[in-house]
C-alpha cells in the first residue's frame, strides 16, 4: 500500500476540529480539521461500530481515541465504508487499517482511485470564489493504493456491518461517490454529494456557518451528475443528514433546503467557468 498524502496536506483550519457530536441516537461524528468521520453503532451491546470515511492525514490517533472512549478499549470497527477516495476522506486510512485490520468497502467505480490505478483530476481553482478554492491546487489529487484491503460494496445496495442501511450511488463529485440511507428514521450520511457549509470559503468553514450547498466545487468532476445526485437525495426526504463537511441538519430546515438546492442547483452551484461542466 502507498500513501501519497503524508506531509503534503496543509492544515488550513485546524481550529475547526471539535468535540464529537451525535447526529441521531446511534450516529456519532468527529470533525478532523475540515472533514467529518462518522461512527455508527452496529451492535446491541454498544461496543460494535462501523466507521464511515477516514479523515485527513495524521488524524488516526484522534479517530482511534474517540472509538476507544465511546465503544470501549478493545472495540474495533466491523468495516470501514468510504463515501469516496479524496485525500481528506482517506488521509488516515493506512494507519487505521494497520491498527484495526478491518475490511474496507467502496463503490466499484471508485476502486481505480483506491487501488493505485488512477489519480483524480487536479483541483479547479476557478470553479468557485473563496480562499480554499483558490488554494485547492495545492491539495493532493493522487489516488491511494490499498491493494486487496478494499473491495466493492455489494451490488444489492446492502452495507456490510450496517444491516438497516443501504448505499446509494451519488456520483458527480467523483465517479463512485456514495451516500448511505436508513429508511426507519430517514437518516442520511451524504459524504460530499451535498455539504452543509460553503466549503470553498475559509471563513464559512472556520465559523461552520450552516447552509446547504452542493459538493465542494474545486474537486467536483461532473456537474450534471452532481445535480442528479442532489435531486435523488431530495427525493429521499431525509429527516436528518450529516455531510462530509459541515454540521448536521434536520427536519423542515433540511427538507426545505434540499428542495431549494435541487431546484436552483444550476444557478447557485454550477460554476459557469469550470472545466468540469458537462
Automatic annotation (TrEMBL):
Designated name of the protein: Glyoxylase-like metal-dependent hydrolase (Beta-lactamase superfamily II)
Record bears the keyword Hydrolase: yes
Record's keyword terms, sorted: Hydrolase
One Pfam family it belongs to: Lactamase_B
Species per Swiss-Prot/TrEMBL record: Alicyclobacillus sacchari
Domain Metallo-beta-lactamase: 34-245
Membrane spanning residue stretches: none
InterPro entries membership: Metallo-B-lactamas, NDM-1-like, RibonucZ/Hydroxyglut_hydro
Any one GO molecular function term: hydrolase activity
Amino acid at each position: 500500500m502507498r500513501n501519497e498524502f503524508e506531509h503534503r496536506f496543509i492544515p488550513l483550519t485546524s481550529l475547526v476540529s471539535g468535540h464529537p457530536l451525535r447526529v441521531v441516537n446511534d450516529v456519532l461524528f468527529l470533525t478532523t480539521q475540515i472533514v467529518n468521520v462518522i461512527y455508527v453503532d452496529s451492535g446491541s451491546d454498544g461496543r460494535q461500530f462501523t466507521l464511515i470515511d477516514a479523515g485527513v492525514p495524521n488524524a488516526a490517533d484522534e479517530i482511534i481515541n474517540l472509538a476507544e472512549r465511546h465503544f470501549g478499549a478493545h472495540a474495533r470497527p466491523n468495516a470501514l465504508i468510504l463515501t469516496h477516495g479524496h485525500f481528506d476522506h482517506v488521509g488516515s486510512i493506512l494507519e487505521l487499517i494497520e491498527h484495526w485490520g478491518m475490511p474496507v468497502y467502496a463503490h466499484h467505480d471508485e476502486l481505480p482511485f483506491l487501488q493505485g490505478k488512477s489519480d483524480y483530476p487536479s483541483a479547479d481553482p476557478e470553479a468557485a470564489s473563496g480562499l480554499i478554492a483558490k488554494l485547492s491546487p495545492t491539495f493532493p489529487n493522487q489516488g491511494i493504493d490499498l491493494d486487496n484491503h478494499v473491495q466493492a460494496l455489494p451490488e444489492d445496495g446492502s452495507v456490510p456491518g450496517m444491516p438497516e442501511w443501504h448505499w446509494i450511488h451519488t456520483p458527480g463529485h467523483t465517479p463512485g461517490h456514495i451516500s448511505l440511507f436508513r429508511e426507519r428514521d430517514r437518516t442520511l450520511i451524504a459524504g460530499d454529494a451535498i455539504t452543509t457549509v460553503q466549503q470553498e470559503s475559509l471563513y464559512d468553514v472556520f465559523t461552520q456557518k450552516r447552509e446547504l450547498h452542493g459538493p465542494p466545487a474545486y474537486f467536483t468532476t461532473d456537474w450534471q451528475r452532481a445535480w442528479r445526485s442532489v435531486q435523488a437525495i431530495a427525493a429521499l426526504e431525509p429527516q436528518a443528514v450529516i455531510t462530509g463537511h459541515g454540521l448536521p441538519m434536520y427536519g423542515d430546515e433540511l427538507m426545505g433546503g434540499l428542495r431549494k438546492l435541487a431546484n436552483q442547483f444550476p444557478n447557485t452551484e454550477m460554476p459557469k467557468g469550470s472545466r468540469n461542466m458537462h
